[in-house]
Amino acid sequence: MTELLQMSNVSKTFTGVTVLSGVDLTVCEGEIHALLGQNGSGKSTLIKILSGYHAPDEGAQIQVRGEDIPLPLNPGDPLKLGIAFVHQDLGLADDLSLVDNLSVGEYRLKRGWRIDWRKQEEAVAASLREFGIEEDVRADVSRLSSPARRALVAIARAVTYIRRHHEGGVLVLDEPTVYLPRDEVRHLQDVVRRLADDGVGVLYVTHRLDELRDFADRATVLRDGRSVGVVDIRSKGTSGLVQLITGTAVDFGGPRDSDVNRTAGELLNVKGLTGGRVADVSFSLRPGEVVGLAGLVGMGQDDVLGLIFGATRRTAGEVVVDGERLPSDPRAAIDHGVSFLPADRPKLSAAVTETVAENVTLPVLTKLFFSNGRVQTRQERKHVTALLDRFDVRPRNPLLEMARLSGGNQQKALLAKWLQTEPRVLLLDEPVQGVDIGAKAQIFDRLRETATAGCGLVIASSEYDDLALLCDRVLILVDGRVDRVLTGAQVTKDQIAAACYGSEVA
Amino acid sequence: MSSTTRSAGHNTAAAGKPERSRGKDFGRRITPYTLLGVLVLEYLIFVAIKPATFLSVDALTTILSSQAPLLIATLGLTLTLIVKEFDLTVGANLVFVDVLVAALAVNQGMPLLPALVIAVLCGTLVGVLNAVLVVGLGIDSFIATLGMSTLLSGVSLWAAGSTIISNVPSALITVAGTQLLGIPLVVFYGFGLAVVLWYVYNHLPVGRYLYFVGANQEVARLAGIRAAKVKAGAFVSSAFIVSLAGIMQAGTVGSADPTAGPSFLLPAFAACFLGATAVRVGKFNVWGTMIASYLLFTGITGLALLGQTGWVQDAFNGLALLIAVIAARFARR
What we know:
The structure holds two protein chains of two kinds.
Chain A: E1 3-14, E2 17-28, E3 32-36, H1 43-50, E4 61-64, E5 67-68, H2 77-80, E6 83-86, H3 98-103, E7 109-110, E8 114-115, H4 117-129, H5 147-165, E9 170-174, H6 182-197, E10 201-205, E11 218-223, E12 226-232, H7 238-246, E13 268-275, E14 278-285, E15 290-294, H8 303-309, E16 316-321, E17 324-325, H9 330-335, E18 338-341, H10 345-349, H11 356-361, H12 365-369, E19 370-371, E20 374-375, H13 377-390, H14 407-419, E21 425-429, H15 437-452, E22 456-460, H16 464-470, E23 473-478, E24 481-487, H17 493-505
Parallel strand pairs in A: 3-10, 3-11, 6-9, 9-10, 15-22, 15-23, 18-21, 21-22
Antiparallel strand pairs in A: 1-2, 1-4, 4-5, 7-8, 11-12, 13-14, 13-16, 16-17, 19-20, 23-24
Helix pairs in contact in A: 5-6, 14-15, 16-17
Chain B: H1 2-10, H2 23-28, H3 34-49, H4 51-54, H5 57-65, H6 68-82, H7 90-107, H8 112-136, H9 141-159, H10 170-177, E1 179-180, E2 183-184, H11 185-203, H12 205-215, H13 217-222, H14 227-253, H15 261-275, H16 286-305, H17 311-330
Antiparallel strand pairs in B: 1-2
C-alpha cells in the first residue's frame, strides 16, 4: 500500500504546556484510519496542525505522497496537496443553494467571464448523485431533510476539492457523526468506504468506538499528547481499544438498580404536550425515576424536553410539577425545581466567551450570591471551585474562559451548573454527546447519584446503550407521538433499537 | 470560517486564533493597562512639543472638561454595546434633547424645570422606541437605529428652526459649569456616572446578565434570565443617560446646534471600542472606556492647542476607531 500522508515527530507546545509530543501518523491509500483519544489527548491539535491552523514545533515532518512538505502549512496548502477536511459543524452556508456551496472557488465560465449556471448546476448535481443525493441543486442547504444529508453534502464538497487537484487524496473527517443519529451513521460510512475503495485515504476522528467495527482499518491512539499505539481495528476488541485510550479499563456500571419511589406521588405529569414536531405526548415521572426518550431522527423525541421546560412554546397540553401547573417559561420552570441541559453546547448551553464560574452560577446568581448590595464574588469562586472539584472538571480554575475547556469538561461544568440548583426534575438532551469516555463514566455516576437522591430524570438520547444503562422506562416516539413504552427487562439496547426501527416499517 | 466555531469546544491551550499571524505578538503586548500607558505617552509628547502650554493647570482642566457631555453619552453607549446591539441614535438623541431644552426654554419661554423634564422624557422615549423595534419586532439594531437617528436629526432641525439656538437659561449653565476645584461640575457628573455603571457591571447581578445576554442570549434565557427585558432595559437606560448628556451639552455650551449629531456619534463608538482593549480586555467596560475617551480628548484638545482644528478632529477620531477595532481583533483574551 502506498503511503499518502505521513506525519512524523509532531510536537506542539503552547506557552510551556506540551500538548503533543513526538506523534507519528500514517494514512495509506485506500485506508480508513481512525484517530482516537479522549478530549485533551491532542487529536484536535494534530488535526489543526495538518490543516495549517497551528504551526508545529521544530523537528516535525510531514510527507504527502512521499514528498516533504515545507512547514508550517498555510491554511490554503492542504487543499492544494489534496487534503480536504470535513469538520463536525460541516461548514456549510445554510442560506445558500447547493450549487453555491459546492462551487466556491470554481465556476464554469462562458467566454471566459460569465458564469455558465446551467453547466455549473449539472456538474454539481452529478457529483452529488454519486453520494446518493438527488436534490434540486438550486434549493438552499437549509432545506435538506436530514443531518446525514448535510454531512454527505459536506463530504461531497471535500471530495470535489480533492479531485480537482489529485487522484486519491486524503479526506479528513473530524467527528462528522457527532450530530448524527445512529441509523444515519451507517449510510455515511458506506459512502466513505466506497471512497476509500477508490483509493482515497481517510483519516477519521471520532469518539464513538462502536461505529469503527466493520468500518475502519487501523487506528492511531493518542493519550496525553503521545501516540500509544497503532492498532489493527479488526483484531482489537472494543474493550481493548478503550483500555488503550484511557490507560485503564472504564466501567460504566451495569444497568442501574431502580430507585423509583413508588409510594411517593408523581413529581412531574405531562399531559397532551404539543408543539413543534411533538403531538399529544403524555407521561409521568416519580421521584428517583429515569425516563428515556428515543426515536429516529425527526420523530420529535428531542423536542419534548424543550417544551416541558418552556424553552420552546407549547401550543397545547399542560405540565404539572408537584401538583402545580407550569407556565411555558424557563424562569418559572427553574423556580419549580425543573432544570434543562440542552444538547447544543455552544448555542444553548454555554456562553463560551464568559468564565466557567460565571457560566456555572448564572441560574442561581441572584439567589445565592447577591447580598449586602453586591455579588459576593469571593464566595462565588469558592463555591464554583468546590463544584469543579466534585465534578472533576479540569483544569479546576473558575476564572478560565469557558472556551478553554475541552468538550467533556465543559459538559461536566454545565451538569454542575444545573445540579447545584438542586432540581427535582432534571431534563437532559444528549447528555454525553461529543464527550470522551472518561468524562462519560463520570457523568453517568453523577446522574445515578442524582436519581438515587430522589430527583426524577428525563433523558433524550440517540445512544440506545446509554439509555439502556440509565433508564427505568423508555418512551419510543414516532411522528411526535408516544408509540411504545418499554419497561423493566425490555429496556435493552436491542429492544430500544428494534422499537425505534420496527415502528418505522409498520 | 468553520474552524472558528469548532475551536470553541476543542481548544486545549491556546486562544482560538490562528497563531502564525504576527498579530499574536502584537496581541500579547496588549495588557489591561497598555491603553493607559498610551494616554500618558500621548500627553508627554504634547508636553515635549510645547511645554509652556501643556504643563499648565489650564491645559489639564481643558482636557478634563472639554468634552464632558460626550463622555456621559459614551458611558451610556456601553450599555447597548454590551448586549451586542448597535445604537446609532446616541449622537442624534443627544442633540435632540439639547435642542428640545433650548427650543422649549428659549423659543417657547417655558420655565426651565418642565423643559428639562419633557426633554429627558422625549429622549428616553427614543430608547423605548428603539427597544420596541429591536427587541419587540426583531429588527436589526443597526438599521433600526440608523433610521431612528436620521428621523431625530430631521425633527431636531425642525424644532430649532434650522438655526443654532443660543441664550440657554443661566440656571442650567450654573448646574453644568459651576467650578469646583477649578473643574466644572459636569466632569464630576461624568465620573459619578462611571462609578455607578462600574458598580452595576461588576457588582450587581444585572451587570452579569447584560454581559451574558450579549455573549449568548439563548443561554441566558434558558438560565432563567429575562433576556428580552434586559436588552430592552439596556436601550432605555442608555437613552436616558444620553438624554442627561444632552442637557449637559446645553448647559456647557449655552446654545444648541441641531446639526451637531455626527460629531458625537463617531467619537462615542471609537471610545467604547478602544476601551474594550483595556482593563477588562475583550469586553466593553467602564474604566477602559474612560481611559479611551481621555485618550481621544487629549489628542483633540492637544491638537487644537497646537492650532490644528477642523479636519484634524475627524481624521483623529476615525483613525482611533480603526486602530481600536484592529487592536481588539488581536487582543489576547
